[in-house]
Amino acid sequence: MNTLVADKIVKKFSNHLALDNVSIEVPQGSVFGLLGPNGAGKTTLIRIINQITAPDSGHVFFNGERLSSKHIAQIGYLPEERGLYKKMSVGEQSLYLCQLKGMSKKDALIGLKHWFEKFEIQSWWDKKVEELSKGMQQKVQFITTVLHKPELLIFDEPFSGFDPINANLLKNEILELSRNGATIIFSTHNMSSVEEICSHIALINKSQKILDGDIDIVREKHSSKIYELEYTGFFNKLETTLTSDYKILDFKETTSGGAIKIEVLNDQMTSNDLLKRMMQYGTISSFRKNLPSMNDIFIKVVGDTNSVTE
Amino acid sequence: MNKIGLIIKREYSTRVKKKTFIIMTILGPILFAAMMIAPVILMQMESDDYKKIAVIDEARMFDNALKNTEYIDFEFVSDKYFDSATSTYNLTQAKADLKESDYYALLYIPHTAVQTNRGAVQLISYQQPNMGLKMHIANGIEKRIEDIKLSTKADDLGITQQDVDEILMVVNTNINVVTTTLDEKGGEKESSTEIAMIIGYICGFLIYMFVFMYGSQVMRGVIEEKSNRIIEVIVSSVKPFQLMMGKIVGVALVGLTQFVLWVVLTIGLVSIGQSILLKDYKMSEISQNTMSMGSQLDESGNPQDEDAMKFEEMFRAVYSVDYVTVISLFLFYFLGGYLLYAAMFAVVGSAVDNETDTQQFMLPITIPLVLGIIVMVSAINNPSGSLAYWFSIIPFTSPIVMMVRIPFGVPFTDLFISMASLVVSFVFMTWFAAKIYRVGILMYGKKVNYKELWKWFKYRN
Q: Which residues on chain B are in Cβ contact (under 8 Å) with A85?
């Protein structure tokens, strides 16, 4: 079951195409990474999902229904460009933002009390926003984004402006929300955080989706059959005994054994074939397929599509 | 709708809690009340001040002409300074004595005053004497001289003093033009051109001021949301149109609150000021006071002096104005004008990133408003002329210009066309503005011009 489906979205601004037939499927309970370089169209897509702008063609479905204003209360959105009213007090403002999402004043107060206690920021309630640091403001924004317990949460570059400690706190909160059943769309440039928390991704470049799916499958698909082995025993003169199907990329020898990095050049051969072959030479203590990092995939895929279009 | 209600509430409550609003709301009425009470207090203070005046009367004929009042005593010191050796009066000595004495001033009436008409009478003092005193003295002396001249002439012609008095009674004429306007149903109503002018001016100016003040508050609010970057959070919960309307209506309520508070507080302050500062002084007594200060009662006992009549007439005129109509139309044009311009102000706010960039878009707002004020000034002299007519129909200037015409009475059809076109145009302007606004609020760092705004207007959703 997909919480959100965007189907063939096209959005054109006066002189450029922001989204060209982009479709994504966000499975329920997933942490969905929306990736892409600056200006690729991520924010436009997120704005369409939030009904801030409407697509020129294509449709968005929320739990199978056509997206409409009644779904606003089920979506929580933390934009990249975010801020608060500087002159308003933290409490009043949080209450206002929650009520705009359709919460009753009573529910909002109960929820706010809970979250303020959790973040240990009760003392901020009467402070004006301008008295808070940027990181503190971000916490308040985070609370007002998630407080109405939306089914779908959208975070656009959530970690920008956070120090490492607070970024970690935020990451853990996002993961907890995910464990509690929320579906999360997560837009970022930070690829290491994608590997850590995303279960699915879509990569948008130059207004087009160029890659999507389960993150493990994506990484598997982009792995180039490189394996790492550790062994004990003697792999003497390996270069001369291995056939042309294999290529040694790296070789380290210790007193008792060594570590080796091998690329399998023959597409027909599987990891088992490699293992069988290597077992003849000694005792294998670890064997691992080397998966590319999301960073590598990002650079490679974006680089490829850019060179094609240029 | 519920969400618009929330927005209106926020816009309203954050603004009325602001220090500037509270200060303005308190200072305004104090200023207005001071403007209304101050002249009365000043007048009272002047007359309260007891003055003793030394008089050297060379001709010795003004003893009875200068009457003592509650605050002014005349003492005739002619004998003291009469030098029998030269048969002249020692004015130099009198002047020198003035400093040490408790006299406020020295009044010198040379005997030539009776022959030559003006300028011969001198009032010598260390402080500038007030108008009331000067008028009192001048009137007294004039009256006496007139009487002397009259009786001299009467003697020449051989008629008695009684005849003279009779002639004067017959001749005394007082023409007073009372303006009366007819309404459609044939009813009559006394009116005053002056009062209508004053009310028209005040209303027109207030509308101009309010539209500018609260319109730019809308603009600043939009810029604030944009530069705070809270806008994207808000528009993910509500439609941009709701946000814009909520802001416009919220600020309008702030304006109405301020206006009502001003009116109530001003009336309150004026009545408190009257009861405390002026004790049992009432406007009518003040008028009598001015009257007795300014001129003498008619000898025949006719108290209806010219000034008093004017005063009474003015009061009648002030009360004759149909305040219910004026105030309700004022509120209508205030709201209509504000709504029309607030939408334009909102567009300007949405198009720029900070307040310094607003300048280039302010022209289409400022020009019609200033034009309205200019036309208002000339329309007040000719409220039913074609200039006043057209500018009170055109919605951009009608709130200001029509307010000037209303106290003079406006035909129902004119009023209807003007009001209807105002409503139609603010509805259209709001729709037009909303289309630009919803694009503008999400645009950052772009150099925007009118062409760009037009492009935004044509965007779909």
A: 14, 224-225, 228, 230
B400 and B301 assigned to the same domain:
yes
State the Cα–Cα distance between residues B365 and A193, nearest whole angstrom.
Answer: 50
Cβ atoms A116, B275 nearer than 8 A: no
In SS3 terms, A47-76 reads as: HHHCCCCCCCEEEEEECCEECCHHHHHHEE
Question: In terms of domains, do B14 and B118 share one?
Answer: no
Helix (H, G, I), strand (E, B) or coil at B50: coil
Under DSSP, the state recorded for B130 is: P
10-residue stretch averages of pLDDT, chain B, 461 residues long: 87 91 89 78 66 82 76 81 79 82 84 67 80 80 82 83 82 73 61 76 89 92 89 88 93 92 86 68 46 41 51 63 82 92 92 84 90 88 85 91 85 91 93 89 79 79 59
Strand B82-83 versus strand B88-89 pairing type = antiparallel
d(CA B415, CA B332): 11
Sign for the pseudo-dihedral over CA of B89, B95, B100, B106: positive
3-state SS track over B438-452: HHHCCCCCCCCCHHH
A180 inside 8 A of chain B by CB:
no
Q: Which residues of A271-291 are buried (b: 16+ CB within 10 A; e: fewer)?
A: eeebeebbeebbeeeeeeeeb
Kindly provide the ipTM of the predicted complex, given to two decimals.
0.80
User: Residue B149 falls within a domain, yes or no?
Assistant: yes
Q: Which residues of B touch A75 (CB under 8 A)?
A: 236
Note whether B14 contacts A88, CB cutoff 8 Å.
yes
Give the number of beta-carbon pairs within 8 Å between A and B: 65
Q: Is B236 in Cβ contact with A85 (below 8 Å)? A: no
Sign of the four-CA dihedral A10, A11, A12, A18: negative
Q: Tell me if B233 and A50 make a contact (CB, 8 A cut-off).
A: no
Is A94's pLDDT higher than 90?
A: yes
Q: What is the pLDDT of residue B289?
A: 45
SS3 A281: coil
Any idea what the CATH number is for the domain that residue B55 is in? 3.40.190.10
Closest CA to B214 of B263, B243, B246, B251: B251
Chain A partners within 8 Å of B6 (Cβ): 96, 99-100
Distance from CA of B346 to the nearest CA of A (A): 18
Q: Return the CATH architecture of domain A2-220.
A: 3-Layer(aba) Sandwich (3.40)
Domain span holding position B6:
2-40+192-458
Residue A100 contacts B, CB cutoff 8 Å: yes
Asked if A60 is an interface residue toward chain B (Cβ–Cβ < 8 A), one would say no
Q: Looking at the structure, do residues B244 and B337 belong to the same domain, yes or no?
A: yes
The rounded distance, in Å, linking the Cα atoms of A215 and A220 is: 9
Total Cβ atoms within 10 A of residue A237 = 9
Tokens at residue A18, please? 């922001």
Considering A63-72, A280-289, B309-318, B421-430, the range whose residues carry the highest mean pLDDT is: B421-430
Sheet with B105-109, strands from edge to edge, namely B72-76, B51-57, B105-109, B122-125
Q: Give Rg (Cα) of chain B.
A: 32
Using an 8 Å CB-CB cutoff, list chain B residues near A58. Answer: none
DSSP state of A11: E
